[in-house]
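Reply to dn_fold:

You asked what the input looked like. This is it:
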Amino acid sequence: MIFSGSDVTQEVMSLSYHGLTQPSLPDALNNFYARFDDPNTSPSTRFIPPPGEEPLRVTAAEVRRTLQRINPRKAAGPDNISGRVLKGCAYQLTEVLTDIFNTSLQQAVVPTCLKTATIIPIPKTPTVTGLNDYRPVALTPIVMKCFERLVMAHIKDCIDVTVDPHQYAYRKNRSTEGRHFFCGPHSPHPLREQRLLCPPALCGFHLSFQHNHIPQTLVQKLTTLGLSFTLCNWVLDFLTDRPQSVRIHDVSSSSISLSTGSPQGCVLSPLLFTLLTYDCSAIHPSCLIVEVRG
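and this is what came back:
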């Protein structure tokens, strides 16, 4: 059974879990996906930029190029603005979007409408036995994805994100195949020649970016890496108070605001996770940490 990113077939609507009715299933799933959020968590602290710090600014040419590179087949976000429209009207929308993006960067505030996500739950198995059997597919505004790409390019220019030679995840011209070559039986690594390599230990971090304190921890690391205080405040605002709802066919749940990490579906999420874990290193010189994406 194949599902598109913007629709779920009628079979999903007919499913129930422990007696949940159709209208209550989206709310149950939304609460389930938001289970890591703690409303009692202290609000994150914004940094005070030093006098004279200039905020990041994007140019009209950069915005236009980003709009022209939109994949028109991507599903629209909660705003229902399709990629085909944005790409086709790139020249007409460039100036207004440039002003919106630069105002957001200057004030270090991301508009709530751009942070909103709609989650489409897709059954992992033919028979659903629990809420965890639904895989969440998050749809976010395509305009925000364009904005994130512009910010991501700036972060990569300011921060050396390739300092670890053993990082194969979220890096250009790196892949799982490269990690297999490095760790495989024909690896040229000197430890293998000395027969000092032991079987690898695999660790999964599929929920690691949903921890309550990650936004504050992340922006503190970004300041030490050289990112400006204003942009760090923008990232912090981007990660907090994000409205989220679940939609199953034509039934939607109530909205919940989350401040737990960076959600699925965001362009910046892989880079932010990489920067969060950049200082994770092995204590013993004979050990290696190789980061890959599953």
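Confidence is low (pLDDT under 50) at residues 1-15, 190-196, 204-212.
Hope that clears it up.
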